[in-house]
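So, could you explain the following?
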Amino acid sequence: MSHLVIEKSLDIRTIADRESRRLLQQRRELGASLFWLEVRERLYSSLITALSILYTVLLPPAVARQLRTEVFRRYLSEFAIRMIDVAVALTGLILSLPLFLIVPVLIKLDSPGPVFYHQVRTGIDRRRGDRRNADLGIGKERRKAQRRQQDLFGKPFKIYKFRSMYENAEADSGPVWASEQDPRVTRVGRILRRFHIDEIPQFWNILKGDMSVVGPRPERPEIIRQIVDAVPEYRLRHRVRPGLTGLAQIWDGYDSSLDDVRKKLSHDLEYIRIRGPVTNISIILQTLVYLYKPQKFQQKTHQRV
């Protein structure tokens, strides 16, 4: 089911939730004729069933075969992406085994606190068909109200890193955006971040299926709520698994303003549009070049601006 809906050709109010109607109104005020609309699969279940019957019974055999081919290609693409994720994650963990012996010692010598740092991040939006995080004992309607109230934008998961900040660094300030000269970062942490060594434990998140090698960077629910109020389209990046690397991670640095968020979001949405096994392999190769020569990408970024 396409997420691009032409206004006036369909009564959006019959399928859209409250948030989608609010987005629709904003697009109308801006004079847009097309907009992205996230709809709940449950409301579409009967429509999808009817379309399936049309595909198999009413449509010409050639058209039905083409549609089945497109569905097969999509699932084959997802399977290939997952195989790439598993292969890269296993290879990364094996090659980084010496670092799992050295880095913990350096972290402990530098500052008190745990070696590993974990934090709740927002993953792919599968709440429509995934109830594993729901309290099944509170009833269907109350679960709906609970999800609306929490508004996590996607499935929450624990992300793992080597600790690069002082322990309880956000005890007084609360959740804040990271920056290049962040005073919360330890001396060893700056080295880990400089060479992206602190991200290595996320290979485990990839093996678990929480993340992909390539995708939008996972963010905290608290930060997402702040961003979505000003940039509603930010929700769309949760249509795919978050990633360890991606176009936005390569071409842009830390977020320090909403303009930076919009710029990185444009890269994330571009990736979602062209996403596929070949695209992911290309971005992985670009990431290896970036790790070796980051100034090459910084120069191109300045040229774009």
Summary: The longest strand covers residues 116-122. The chain has two domains: 4-70, 72-304. Residues 1-15, 31-43, 129-136, 299-305 have pLDDT under 50 and may be disordered.
